[in-house]
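Read as chain and fold; for instance:
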Amino acid sequence: MMEVRKAVSDDCRCYIEVHCPEVKALPRNERLRVCGWWADYDACVSYLKLYRRLGGEVFTALLGGEVTGDIELLPHDDCLLGPRAYINVLWVKESRRGLGVGARLVNQGVKWAMLRGYRYLDTIPEKESVGFYSKLGFKHIGSQIKAVRKPKPLLLNADYGFREINVDEPPLGMKLITGTYRPGLFTWYSAWEDKYLPPQISPLAFELMIKENRVIILLDYYKENEASLVLWSSKMPDNELIRNAILISEQLAVEASIAKIFVQTWSRYEGLLRGLGYEIIDRDTIWLNKSV
């Protein structure tokens, strides 16, 4: 018999079997590095609390009382496409796939989105999962690109009103421009508060003004000297604003001795990134959408 319910703390003792049973015998830090927060009880409980604090939810699927999968849902109110509910993670234990667990979890996600008043439920799936979502009524409505570059210094000749900020000044009510692999507020708080996953380096964040637009820059470390660039704008951005924000971010990265910047954003900005010298490493990251 299948059951889907809200996740409880004890589920965190079982998620490693769902997501990555092959790392169970590894030391704790190595498990976290390979598998993420599902591999450690304390990290898992911390992330459950973060999801719920941000208005999200995690649901667990059980078959015969055995934890067999989970779906992790978040509000994505800063998406350039407009507010929507978002599937951050959907995973089913490999030995239990093909039994309808994933479909039940997605159905739970649809109900959750509807109860919160969203019109859409979106996700960026693994490429091998696109067919699964398509069968459930999800449609391909956009694509994203991933790009990398060694940052280069820029001699700033304008007063942008720079101000370094911290976790207590989140980008509320703003538009997420880059770092679009998950909702922006989840990225913001996990970057500051994650005390479990490597490299455990505090991010750098700045507020500035570009042509009367408030812009927030977050340099979120994913390796010791490499960072993901996350940008928000107070208004719908044009290419000039994005270009200036990226160049300024590179200057800040150089000053912080960051050797490589990773950018994920919408495919419409591919030409802009190429013009800035970024190497496109993936130009077919699919965005799926389902009306609810």
